[in-house]
Design brief:
flat; mainly alpha
């Protein structure tokens, strides 16, 4: 989802990651449905390209993790 421009907040909402904090619990009652739909539309377009064999940029997860570990060293 990162590759198609879905930001961290939207990824967390789509993946049902726990949202915490006073603002989320008491103030943010918005369901974010339009934003979720747009994020899923982008992800669907990426998956469609993959299934059709079109050029896409995919990252090997092990390589990605190693790069992340090196960047924090």
């Amino acid at each position: 989802m990162i590759d198609v421009g879905v930001n961290r907040e939207q990824r967390n909402l789509l993946q049902s990651h726990a949202q915490s904090g006073v603002d989320v619990k008491h103030y943010d009652r918005h369901e974010h449905l339009p934003e979720k739909r747009e994020s899923l539309r982008r992800y669907d377009a990426l998956l469609d390209k993959i299934l059709k064999g079109e050029e896409t940029t995919l990252v090997d997860i092990d390589t990605y993790r190693q790069q992340k570990e090196l960047s924090f060293s």
